[in-house]
C-alpha cells in the first residue's frame, strides 16, 4: 500500500539513503550546538579571559609569572598540599567506602534502605553546611574540642570523607550489585580462600569502578573550596582557596592566573587517566546472571558490618551535633529562637536582607540552574550516546566527553571570577543580571547531569530503536517513544540532583552573588565569619534548613529514579 | 527511472521487470577498520539473492559468516558499500496502488529504515519494556490510519495468530521467553509489512520450546503469505521453515536452492559438512559398494547389516538416541578411509562390520571438491 509514496521518495540520489542520513546528521549537529555554545560562552570565554589577564602584560605574553610564583616555597608547598590532602581523602574514602558498598549493595538486611540513606545523604549536603558541622564539633568548647583537631588537616580530611563517602559507596556498590557471581564461584572451587578469591577475582572486576570513584573523590577534594576555606581558617590553603585569596584579598590576578593554570593542568592530567580507565570499563564490564543466592554470614561480612556501623554512627554524630546546636538558644536552654532569627538581618545589622530572602533567592536560582543544566546536559548526552561508525567521529565524541568534565575540575572560583571580569561588557553584560548566578550554578551541575543521564541513554539497546524504526517510526518518534520513556526517570533524578547541587553551590556563587541578593550558602559563610552568638545561631539554623532541603531532594531522587540512581557516579 | 551507480559490475537486470518479491543485487557491506592499519572487514561480499513474493528464504551459515549483516543491510541498519536492494510488488497489488507498468519496483536501499515497510524480529525479542503487550504490538500501527478501536482489533487479531489470546494488557516483564518471542513476531507482523526479517528468532529459546515455536512460526508465515528472510545457524530450522535456503560462508552465498536440492546435492564439502554430512570420501576412494568420485556420507548412509556390501573395522563406537554411532575404517583402493556408521548394538573396537549402503544418506559431490 505504501508503494506510491516510496517510489516518489526514491529520488535520484548518489548513495543509498544519503539524504536521510544527512538530515539526521544536521539534526545532531544542531543538538550538539546547544551545549557547545553554552560551554564556549559561559565556560571557555570567562576562564580564558581570566587567564589572559594574568598572562598577558601590555598585550604581550609574559610567562615570567610562572617563575615568580613557583619560586616561592609557599606556593610549591601549596601545590603539594593540594595533591596530598586530596589523595589522602580519596584513599580514606575507599578504605571506609568499599566495605560499605559491599554491605549496602550485596547484602539484604532489615534497615538497609535507612542505612543507605544515612550514609549517602552527606553527598548532597552543601560544603558550607558540612564545614560548619565539623567546625562546631571540633571547636574548642565543642563536643570534641578536647581532641585538639580544630583547624587541622585531620578536620579537613574528616569533612572530605564525610562528603564523598556516599560517592564511593554508590559508584562501587552499583557495579558490585550487578557483578557476575560465577567467576568467584569458579575461584573458590579451584581452592582459593575467600580472601584470595576476593583479592584475585572480585577486586580486579571492581577495578574500574574503584579507580573511577577514587578519581572523582580526588577531583572533588583537590578543588574543594568551602571546606578548606572554613576549616583551614586561612592557615591551610589549597590552590582553590589561594586563587580566591589572591583575587579577593590581594587583587593579584597574575598569581591567580598562574595558580588556575596549575590546577587546570592537574585536572586535565587526571581526566586523561579517567578517560583511559573508562575505555577499559566499557570492555570489561560483565553482568550478573540475575540469580542471587543468599550466602552464609562470614568474617568478611562481620568486618564490613562493623566498619559501616562505625561510619554511620560518626555521620549521625556530626549531623546530630549540628541539629542540637542549632536548637540551643543564645540565652541557654533549647528552643527555636535561632530559626526565628532567620527573619532578621542578624546581630549588628550584619546583612542587607534577612535569611528568608536569601533562601528564596537560593530556591529561585537553583530551580533555574536545574532547568538549564538538564536542557544542556540532555542535549549533550543524546549526542554523546551515539556510537558512530567512523573512527574519527568516535574520537571526536570521546574528546567532547572528556572536555565536558572540565567544569567539574576547573575551580569553581575560577569560573566565578571569570564570569565577573568577562561578562561585564555588551553584548554579554550580565554582571547585574539575576541570571548570572543560575548560569554559573548550572555550569557546575552540568557534568553531574551528564554522568547521570549518559549511562542510561547508552544502556538502551540499540536494537530497541531499530525495532521501532523498522515498524515505521521516523527518528524523532523513535526518540519520543523509546529513549524518552526509558530515560525519563534518569532525567527527573538528574534535575533534582542538579537542583541540590545548585542549592549548595558556594565556590562560584560567592563571587557572583551580590550583597543585595545573597544565596543561603553565601549568607551562612558570612555569618560564620562574624562574631556574635546570634550570628552563629542563625548560621546553624540556616545550615540545618539547607541540609533538610537537600536531603529532601535526595529522597525525591531515590523515589523517582530508584535505589540504584547513579548520583554523581560513573 | 533508476540511475545506475554501482561502482563494480553493472547489476544484471537492474532496468528490467523483476519478479515480485525481494531482490538483493550485488550487495557489499564493509565495516570500518577498528584501528589504524587494520584492513576494513568485508562482512558481505557482492551477494545476490532473490526472495520471491510469499516465500521464505533461509540464510544459513555459521556465526560470523555475514548472514545477520546481510539481514541488517536489507533492514537499512547497515549502509551498503555497493549494490542495491529492490522490492517489487506483486502485479495485482501494484496495479491498484500505483498504476506503474511492469509492477511497481522500489529500491529499498534508497529508503531509510522506517520507510522500508519491513517487520524485524530479533533473537531476544527486544520488546519495549515500558509498554504493555498491546502497546508493543500496536507500535507500528500508529501511522496506519486506524483509530484506537481499530488498532485494538488488529492487536487482538495478532494475539490470536501467535497463540496468546487475552494477553493484551500484560506487562512485558511478566512474559516467558517463548511468549516474548511470540509478541515480537506479532509486533513485526502487525503493520502488514511487505517483508519480514527474522534474525535467529528462536536461538535464545530452549530446545523443546524452539521446536514447538518453529512449527507455529512456519504455520503463521504460510497463513499470512509472508515474504520473509530467516537468518539461522541451525540447518534443521532452515530446512523446516524455508521454501529455499541460501548457505553463507565468509561473506559469500555458496549455494542457493530448495532445501531438498541442497540436501541431496551439496555444492561442496564445506556445505555438506555444515548441513550434517559427517564423512567425506575423496575422489578415487575406491571403497567397493559406494559411488565413485567424492561422496559425502551421513551416519545413516552405512548401517550394520549382515546382508551388506561394504566391510569396515570399528575404530570407536558410542551410543546416540536412535542407534549406536560407530567410526569405521573402510578399505579403499589407495589406503583406508574413515566414515561414520550406525549399528544396533555396541561393537567393540576392532570388530569387522558388514555394512549396508542407504543411498539416501549419500551425496555425490562435484568432482573438483572432496580433497582433504
UniProtKB/TrEMBL annotation, chain A:
It is found in: Cell inner membrane; Cell membrane. The keyword Cell membrane applies. CDD domains: TM_PBP2. It is a multi-pass membrane protein. SUPFAM superfamilies: MetI-like. GO terms for biological process: transmembrane transport. InterPro entries: MetI-like, MetI-like_sf. One of its GO terms (cellular component) is plasma membrane. Pfam families: BPD_transp_1. Keywords: Cell inner membrane, Cell membrane, Membrane, Transmembrane, Transmembrane helix, Transport. Its main location: membrane. The chain crosses the membrane at residues 28-48, 83-105, 117-138, 153-173, 255-277, 297-324, 365-384, 396-423, 435-457, 494-514, 534-557. Residues 79-276, 359-557 form the ABC transmembrane type-1 domain. Belongs to the binding-protein-dependent transport system permease family. This is Iron ABC transporter permease. It comes from Nakamurella aerolata.
UniProtKB/TrEMBL annotation, chain B:
Pfam families: ABC_tran (PF00005). It is an enzyme of class 7 (translocase). Keywords: ATP-binding, Nucleotide-binding, Transport. Residues 1-21 are annotated as: Disordered. Residues 29-275 form the ABC transporter domain. One of its GO terms (molecular function) is ATP hydrolysis activity. Its EC number is 7.6.2.9. This is ABC-type quaternary amine transporter. It comes from Nakamurella aerolata. The lineage of its organism: Bacteria, Bacillati, Actinomycetota, Actinomycetes, Nakamurellales.
Amino acid at each position: 500500500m505504501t508503494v506510491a509514496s516510496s517510489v516518489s521518495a526514491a529520488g535520484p540520489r548518489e548513495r543509498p539513503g544519503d539524504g536521510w542520513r544527512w538530515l539526521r546528521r544536521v539534526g545532531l549537529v544542531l543538538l550538539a550546538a546547544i551545549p557547545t555554545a553554552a560551554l564556549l560562552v559561559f565556560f571557555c570565554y570567562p576562564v580564558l579571559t581570566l587567564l589572559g589577564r594574568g598572562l598577558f602584560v601590555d598585550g604581550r605574553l609574559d610567562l615570567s609569572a610562572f617563575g615568580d610564583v613557583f619560586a616561592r616555597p609557599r606556593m610549591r608547598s601549596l601545590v603539594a598540599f593540594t595533591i596530598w590532602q586530596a589523595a589522602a581523602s580519596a584513599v580514606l574514602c575507599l578504605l571506609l567506602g568499599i566495605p560499605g558498598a559491599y554491605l549496602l549493595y550485596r547484602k539484604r538486611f532489615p534497615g538497609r534502605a535507612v542505612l543507605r540513606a544515612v550514609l549517602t545523604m552527606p553527598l548532597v549536603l552543601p560544603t558550607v553546611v558540612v564545614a560548619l558541622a565539623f567546625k562546631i564539633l571540633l571547636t574548642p568548647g565543642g563536643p570534641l574540642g578536647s581532641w585538639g583537631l580544630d583547624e587541622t588537616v585531620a578536620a579537613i580530611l574528616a569533612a572530605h570523607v564525610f562528603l564523598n563517602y556516599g560517592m564511593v559507596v554508590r559508584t562501587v556498590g552499583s557495579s558490585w550489585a550487578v557483578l557476575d557471581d560465577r567467576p568467584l564461584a569458579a575461584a573458590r572451587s579451584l581452592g582459593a580462600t575467600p580472601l584470595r578469591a576476593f583479592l584475585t577475582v572480585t577486586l580486579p572486576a571492581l577495578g574500574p569502578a574503584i579507580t573511577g570513584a577514587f578519581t572523582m573523590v580526588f577531583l572533588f577534594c583537590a578543588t574543594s573550596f568551602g571546606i578548606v576555606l572554613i576549616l583551614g581558617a586561612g592557615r591551610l590553603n589549597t590552590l582553590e582557596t589561594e586563587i580566591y585569596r589572591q583575587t579577593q584579598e590581594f587583587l593579584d590576578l597574575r598569581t591567580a592566573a598562574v595558580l588556575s593554570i596549575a590546577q587546570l593542568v592537574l585536572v586535565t592530567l587526571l581526566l586523561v587517566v579517567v578517560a583511559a580507565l573508562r575505555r577499559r570499563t566499557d570492555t570489561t564490564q560483565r553482568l550478573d546472571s540475575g540469580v542471587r543466592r543468599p550466602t552464609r554470614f562470614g568474617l568478611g561480612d562481620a568486618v564490613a558490618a562493623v566498619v559501616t556501623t562505625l561510619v554511620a554512627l560518626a555521620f549521625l554524630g556530626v549531623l546530630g551535633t549540628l541539629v542540637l546546636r542549632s536548637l540551643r538558644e543564645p540565652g541557654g536552654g533549647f528552643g527555636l529562637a535561632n530559626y526565628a532569627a532567620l527573619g532578621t538581618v542578624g546581630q549588628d545589622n550584619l546583612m542587607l536582607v534577612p535569611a528568608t530572602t536569601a533562601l528564596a533567592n537560593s530556591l529561585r536560582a537553583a530551580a533555574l540552574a536545574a532547568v538549564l543544566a538538564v536542557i544542556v546536559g540532555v542535549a549533550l548526552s543524546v549526542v554523546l550516546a551515539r556510537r558512530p561508525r567512523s573512527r574519527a567521529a568516535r574520537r571526536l565524541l570521546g574528546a567532547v566527553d572528556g572536555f565536558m568534565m572540565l567544569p567539574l575540575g576547573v575551580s569553581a572560583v575560577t569560573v566565578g571570577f571569570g564570569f565577573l571580569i568577562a561578562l561585564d561588557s555588551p553584548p554579554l553584560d550580565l554582571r547585574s543580571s539575576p541570571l548570572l548566578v543560575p548560569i554559573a550554578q548550572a555550569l557546575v551541575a552540568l557534568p553531574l547531569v551528564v554522568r547521570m543521564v549518559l549511562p542510561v541513554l547508552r544502556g538502551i539497546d540499540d536494537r530497541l530503536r531499530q525495532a521501532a524504526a523498522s515498524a515505521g517510526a521516523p527518528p524523532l518518534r523513535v526518540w519520543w517513544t523509546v529513549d524518552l520513556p526509558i530515560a525519563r526517570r534518569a532525567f527527573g533524578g538528574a534535575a533534582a540532583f542538579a537542583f541540590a547541587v545548585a542549592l549548595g553551590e558556594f565556590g562560584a556563587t560567592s563571587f557572583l552573588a551580590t550583597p543585595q541578593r545573597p544565596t543561603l550558602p553565601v549568607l551562612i559563610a558570612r555569618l560564620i565569619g562574624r562574631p556574635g552568638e546570634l550570628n552563629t545561631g542563625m548560621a546553624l539554623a540556616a545550615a540545618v534548613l539547607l541540609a533538610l532541603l537537600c536531603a529532601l531532594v535526595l529522597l525525591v531522587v531515590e523515589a523517582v529514579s530508584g535505589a540504584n540512581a547513579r548520583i554523581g557516579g560513573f | 527511472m533508476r540511475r545506475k551507480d554501482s561502482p563494480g559490475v553493472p547489476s544484471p537486470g537492474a532496468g528490467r521487470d523483476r519478479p515480485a518479491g525481494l531482490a538483493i543485487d550485488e550487495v557489499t557491506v564493509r565495516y570500518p577498520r577498528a584501528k589504524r592499519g587494520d584492513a576494513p572487514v568485508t562482512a558481505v561480499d557482492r551477494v545476490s539473492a532473490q526472495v520471491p513474493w510469499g516465500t521464505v528464504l533461509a540464510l544459513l551459515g555459521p556465526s560470523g559468516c555475514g548472514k545477520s549483516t546481510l539481514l541488517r543491510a536489507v533492514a537499512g541498519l547497515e549502509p551498503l558499500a555497493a549494490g542495491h536492494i529492490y522490492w517489487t510488488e506483486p502485479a495485482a497489488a501494484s496495479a491498484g496502488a500505483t498504476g506503474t507498468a511492469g509492477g511497481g519496483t522500489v529500491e529499498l536501499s534508497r529508503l531509510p529504515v522506517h520507510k522500508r515497510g519491513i517487520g524485524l524480529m530479533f533473537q531476544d525479542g527486544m520488546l519495549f519494556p515500558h509498554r504493555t503487550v498491546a502497546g508493543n504490538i500496536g507500535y507500528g500501527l500508529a501511522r496506519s490510519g486506524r483509530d484506537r478501536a481499530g488498532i485494538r482489533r488488529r492487536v487482538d487479531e495478532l494475539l490470536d495468530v501467535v497463540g496468546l489470546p487475552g494477553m493484551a494488557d500484560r506487562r512485558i516483564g511478566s512474559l516467558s521467553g517463548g511468549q516474548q518471542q511470540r509478541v515480537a513476531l506479532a509486533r513485526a507482523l502487525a503493520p502488514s509489512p511487505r517483508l519480514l526479517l527474522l534474525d535467529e528468532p528462536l536461538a535464545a529459546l530452549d530446545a523443546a520450546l524452539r521446536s514447538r515455536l518453529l512449527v507455529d512460526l512456519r504455520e503463521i508465515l504460510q497463513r499470512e503469505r509472508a515474504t520473509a528472510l530467516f537468518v539461522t545457524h541451525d540447518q534443521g530450522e532452515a530446512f523446516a521453515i524455508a521454501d529455499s535456503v541460501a548457505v553463507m560462508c565468509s561473506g559469500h552465498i555458496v549455494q542457493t536452492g530448495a532445501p531438498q536440492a541442497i540436501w541431496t546435492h551439496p555444492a561442496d564439502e564445506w556445505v555438506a559438512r555444515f548441513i550434517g554430512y559427517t564423512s567425506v570420501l575423496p575422489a578415487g576412494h575406491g571403497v567397493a559398494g559406494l559411488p565413485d568420485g567424492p561422496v559425502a556420507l551421513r551416519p545413516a548412509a552405512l548401517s550394520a547389516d549382515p546382508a551388506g556390501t561394504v566391510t569396515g573395522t570399528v575404530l570407536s563406537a558410542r551410543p546416540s538416541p536412535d542407534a549406536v554411532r560407530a567410526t569405521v575404517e573402510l578399505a579403499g583402493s589407495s589406503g583406508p578411509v574413515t566414515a561414520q556408521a550406525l549399528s544396533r548394538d555396541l561393537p567393540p573396537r576392532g570388530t569387522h562390520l558388514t555394512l549396508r549402503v542407504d543411498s539416501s544418506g549419500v551425496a555425490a559431490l562435484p568432482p573438483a571438491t572432496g580433497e582433504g
